[in-house]
């Protein structure tokens, strides 16, 4: 609902980005912007001759890499399959008894 939305201004790389977000997401949005700013500053220190646009792409890449790394780590399908396999095996054993 629109009533639950608030307008915030996030500052990243000396630019302001006005956003309408859910009130409940404000802390997350500010934390994310701060993390982007921190990482961008780290890249700027390491590569002072590279322009901010290219560094921003590297920051976006780094976040995507981390996201997909966490997504893979949280994939429980292997465990689910193993639990099902063990459950089936246990059921078969109990039926024989």
Shape category: elongated
Strand order of the largest sheet: 1-2
Number of domains: 1
Stretches with pLDDT under 50, minimum 5 residues: none
What do the pLDDT scores average to?
Answer: 87
Estimate the helix proportion, in percent: 55-70%
- SS strand fraction: 15-25%
Q: Helical segment tally?
A: 3
Strand-helix topology:
Elements lengths: L4 E8 L2 E8 L3 H21 L5 H22 L3 H20 L1
Antiparallel strand pairs: 1-2
Describe this structure in words.
The protein is an alpha+beta fold. The protein has one domain (about 25-95). The chain has helices at about 25-45, 50-75, 75-95; strands at about 5-10, 15-20. It has a two-stranded antiparallel ribbon with strand order 1-2. Helix 1 (about 25-45) packs across helix 2 (about 50-75). The termini are far apart.
How is this structure best summarized?
The protein has 97 residues and is an alpha+beta fold. The protein has one domain. The protein is 65% helix and 16% strand.
Question: Which terms summarize this structure?
Answer:
97 residues; alpha+beta; two-stranded antiparallel sheet; 3 helices; 65% helix; 16% strand; elongated
């Amino acid at each position: 609902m629109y009533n639950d939305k608030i307008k915030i201004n996030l500052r990243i790389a000396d630019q302001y980005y006005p956003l309408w977000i859910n009130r409940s997401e404000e802390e997350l949005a500010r934390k994310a912007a701060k993390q982007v700013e921190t990482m961008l500053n780290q890249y700027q220190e390491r590569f002072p001759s590279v322009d901010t646009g290219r560094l921003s792409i590297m920051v976006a890449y780094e976040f995507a890499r981390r996201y997909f790394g966490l997504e893979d780590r949280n994939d429980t399908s292997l465990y689910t399959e193993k639990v099902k396999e063990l459950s089936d095996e246990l059921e078969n054993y109990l039926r024989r008894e």
